[in-house]
């Protein structure tokens, strides 16, 4: 109830009605409604007003929002899968430490569709990496560096040119057209998602039970020992546990947050 003294303060412009606490599964946000004086309250109208105000403020107020914006500004729901949940936790940690993405989201599939095979782009983890913008955080992992769509294509083209200069005819190894197995030379079905100094992380989209595994490619060939993660979810989960301080990334790297910057430090194996 609003007292007579409070009414006078409001009417004189010296006071305003307090904000009303709006709570949802997305988090808690304060929204301010119109002054509630002696007028009859329309509950439905008030609820609509609260929801509209909350939705307007949610992207800036709630780090746990579960959608990203597409290139045209419309919301893109994040998949409600284990992969989506893992990435959500990663982004929550980054937001908590004020680490912002360095690049704008790119339209899917963009330049990828003019280079990579359609079957490679149909791999869910490939689409997730690029469409959800995992690559927008350049320090997301200590090494190599995440790459976006344009850089992925450029690096893939570079690998194809480099491998084209080598004669593999005398190589006794036979490539196996199965994900996670032997590959002699570079194959466009190896989608580059990170690179540094000639070492690339690639999502292997060849057929087979290990399709979607992430391997390290540095030229010449891939073999089963090149596989670093069973899939993108395992890769991001390793990043998540390292960012949370629970483990070291690749058993070697510890994370440090300072003034919105993410830094990886090579830990002493003895500690």
Tell me what you see in this structure.
The protein is an alpha+beta fold. Helices cover about 30% and strands about 20% of the residues. The longest helix is centred in the first third of the chain and has 19 residues, at about 45-60. It has helices spanning about 5-10, 45-60, 80-95, 120, 125-130, 150-165, 230-245, and strands at about 20-25, 25-30, 65-70, 75, 145, 185, 190-195, 200-205, 215, 220, 225-230, 255-260, 260-265. The strands form 5 sheets. The chain has a 5-stranded antiparallel sheet. A two-stranded antiparallel sheet has the order 1-2. A two-stranded antiparallel sheet has the order 3-4. It is built from 7 helices and 13 strands.
Walk me through the topology.
Layout lengths: L3 H8 L8 E5 L2 E5 L11 H19 L5 E3 L5 E3 L4 H15 L21 H4 L2 H8 L13 E2 L2 H16 L18 E2 L5 E7 L2 E6 L9 E4 L3 E2 L4 E3 L2 H12 L9 E6 L2 E6 L5
Antiparallel strand pairs: 1-2, 3-4, 5-7, 6-10, 7-8, 8-9, 9-11, 12-13
- What is the typical, i.e. mean, pLDDT? 77
Distance between the termini: 62 Å
- Count the DSSP helices: 7
Q: Unreliable runs, pLDDT <50, ≥5 residues?
A: 13-39, 53-80
Structural class label: alpha+beta
Shape: globular
Number of strands: 13
Strand content: 15-25%
> Percentage of helical residues?
25-40%
Order of helices and strands: HEEHEEHHHEHEEEEEEHEE
> What is the total domain count?
2
**Cα Rg:** 25 Å
Strand order of the largest sheet: 5-7-8-9-11
The main pleated sheet reads as: 5 strands, antiparallel
């Amino acid at each position: 109830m609003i007292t007579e003294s409070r009414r006078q303060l409001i009417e004189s412009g010296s006071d305003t009605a307090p904000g009303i606490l709006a709570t949802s599964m997305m988090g808690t946000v304060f929204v301010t409604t119109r002054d509630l004086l002696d007028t009859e309250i329309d509950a439905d109208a008030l609820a609509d007003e609260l929801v509209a105000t909350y939705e307007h403020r949610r992207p800036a107020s709630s780090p746990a929002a579960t959608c990203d914006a597409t290139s045209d500004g419309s919301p893109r729901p994040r998949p409600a899968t284990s992969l989506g949940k893992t990435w959500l936790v990663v982004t929550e940690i980054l937001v908590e430490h004020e680490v912002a993405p360095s690049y704008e989201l790119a339209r899917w599939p963009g330049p990828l569709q003019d280079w990579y095979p359609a079957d490679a782009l149909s791999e869910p983890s490939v689409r997730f990496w690029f469409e959800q913008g995992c690559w927008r955080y350049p320090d997301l992992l200590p090494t190599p560096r995440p790459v976006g769509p344009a850089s992925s294509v450029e690096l893939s083209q570079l690998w194809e040119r480099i491998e084209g200069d080598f004669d593999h005819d005398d190589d006794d190894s036979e490539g196996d057209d199965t994900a996670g197995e032997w590959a002699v030379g570079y194959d466009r079905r190896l989608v580059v998602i990170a690179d540094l100094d000639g070492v690339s992380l690639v999502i292997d989209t060849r057929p087979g039970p290990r399709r979607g595994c992430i391997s390290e490619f540095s030229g010449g060939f891939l073999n089963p020992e090149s596989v670093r993660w069973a899939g993108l979810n395992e890769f991001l989960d390793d990043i998540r546990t390292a960012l949370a301080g629970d483990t070291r990334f690749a058993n070697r790297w510890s994370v440090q947050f300072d003034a919105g910057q993410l830094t990886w430090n090579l830990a002493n194996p003895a500690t």
